[in-house]
Design brief:
The protein is an all-alpha fold. It is built from 13 helices and no strands.
């Protein structure tokens, strides 16, 4: 989530592929699955790391719910700016990335990664300002799912794509006007940016050591979002209570999930992690219900379940294919 992801690559032992809890794990691309945790043991994960991943997902989506509560104060774009600026500040202080010694191509990659991150977040927050959180995440996850189908070129993934499409049709109730057409369009746009973000997160993970690429890309995203946030919120971004809530969103949606997943991924196989990430729409719907009082109809719940099942199926198909060719 956008995301927040929403609110954003997953920490690994030797590097980090994305800036926001890599959605690459959601689709488990063969390339990303291999890079996700260099040198990591491929054994069975215990309940401990699984609980850490679930806790990270809960933190991200409940952070998104807090962000929705903050929007009346700072606006959707103002919240994005607060989140990215504060998360970038924390990561730069912790990681202290080296600025010298990188090639022009490497800088181009990290700038593209930061731009994808900023675009994904701005579109997603515009979506959750208009439609329920669970619906927004469900539509957004179609971007990574589509990327998985395109890259794999396996016939069985067309089944998963069809299942996800059925969920989207059910969610729309036969027309996106029920959801708010602009909100649905923003969520789908966020999904497209999420797919781009996956591609550049993997490239960034290869070119930058440790979490340097993550911190630098987050800083790029913060700089790109800053003019939009200032234009929408202006001096409201400097109100202490607003900054405090913005810091809470940054910690819940970025810093805390990265830390939890870093610990989990040292003991958890990447395909298992990817399956767990497929639960994001369901977690988002729960957060929307508990924090924002956004009730789900039976049809909405079934739609989200179909998209979750499609994501899990795509992940397991990719994992199986990777295992047979290893």
């Amino acid at each position: 989530m956008g995301r927040l992801r929403g609110a954003d690559a997953v920490p690994g032992d030797g590097g980090r592929e994305g800036a926001e809890r890599v959605a690459a794990a959601t689709v488990a691309l063969p390339e990303a699955a291999g890079e996700l945790r260099p040198g990591t043991r491929r054994g069975r994960g215990s309940l401990g790391p699984v609980a850490l991943v679930v806790a990270g997902g809960l933190s991200v989506q409940f952070g998104a719910a807090v962000a929705v509560l903050l929007m009346p104060r700072a606006g959707a774009l103002g919240v994005v700016t607060l989140r990215l600026v504060l998360a970038a500040a924390v990561l730069l202080l912790v990681c202290r990335p080296r600025l010298r010694g990188h090639s022009r191509d490497s800088w181009g990659t990290v700038v593209a990664f930061g731009a994808a991150m900023a675009g994904m977040n701005m579109l997603f927050y515009q979506a959750v300002d208009r439609i329920p959180l669970g619906a927004a995440v469900t539509l957004e996850v179609l971007g990574p799912l589509a990327l998985s189908v395109i890259v794999s070129r396996r016939l069985v993934n067309l089944v998963w794509a069809g299942l996800a499409l059925g969920g989207v049709v059910l969610l729309s109730g036969g027309g996106f006007d029920r959801l708010d057409p602009a909100g649905a369009a923003f969520a789908l746009g966020a999904g497209a940016m999420w797919a781009a973000y996956i591609v550049f997160s993997a490239r960034t993970g290869r070119r930058f050591p440790q979490a340097d690429g993550l911190a630098l890309a987050m800083a790029v995203g913060a700089v790109l979002s800053l003019p939009f946030g200032i234009a929408e919120a202006g001096g409201k971004l400097l109100v202490p209570s607003t900054v405090g809530l913005g810091l809470l969103v940054a910690l819940m949606s970025s810093v805390l999930p990265y830390t939890l997943e870093l610990l989990a991924l040292r003991r958890l196989p990447a395909p298992t992690f990817a399956v767990l990430m497929s639960l994001e729409p369901a977690i988002a719907a729960t957060a929307g219900f508990l924090v924002l009082h956004q009730a789900l109809s039976a049809g909405d719940a079934l739609a989200i379940a179909l998209v979750v099942a499609a994501s899990m199926g795509a992940v397991r198909t990719q994992a199986g294919a990777a295992g047979r060719t290893a």
